[in-house]
Design goal:
This protein is about 80% helix and about 0% strand. By secondary structure, the chain is mainly alpha-helical. It has one domain. Helix 1 packs antiparallel against helix 3, helix 1 runs antiparallel to helix 5 and helix 4 runs antiparallel to helix 5. It is elongated and about 50 Å long. InterPro entries: DUF1304.
Length: about 120
């Protein structure tokens, strides 16, 4: 179960590295294809806002990667739970305010990781 949890953590971290790249470096190019419902004329004026958002996604990815590198099993679990909870909350809020798809892409994998860590700790 712990190995599966670590795989999920790595996947969530990779997703957030992708979000970082998309929002910081590809907002006016690739992001237009990903966010098709977002008005085309708003990509350029919101470039700085998207880059800021991408930076936050990078911090989430860094925390998740850090959790995989910690040697102390107790702290590894705490750090992973903290960052997965941050991702889950952001995904739930995004689904509530922007697009239901965000729940599936962002919150659901984080919630699965949380569940796997908790099952490992308490079973």
């Amino acid at each position: 179960m712990l190995i599966l949890a670590k795989i999920i953590i790595a996947i969530v971290a990779l997703l957030h590295l992708y979000f970082l790249w998309l929002e910081m470096f590809a907002w006016t190019t690739r992001a237009k294809k990903v966010f098709r419902k977002f008005p085309e004329e708003l990509f350029e004026p919101t470039k700085t806002l998207a880059a800021n958002q991408g930076l936050y996604n990078g911090f989430l990815a860094a925390g998740l990667i850090w959790s995989l590198l910690i040697q102390n099993a107790l702290w590894q679990g705490y750090v992973a739970l903290f960052f997965l909870c941050c991702v889950a909350i952001a995904g739930i809020y995004g689904a509530w305010t922007a697009s239901k798809k965000i729940f599936t892409v962002q919150a659901l994998p984080a919630l699965l990781g949380i569940l796997l860590i908790l099952l490992h700790k308490f079973l």
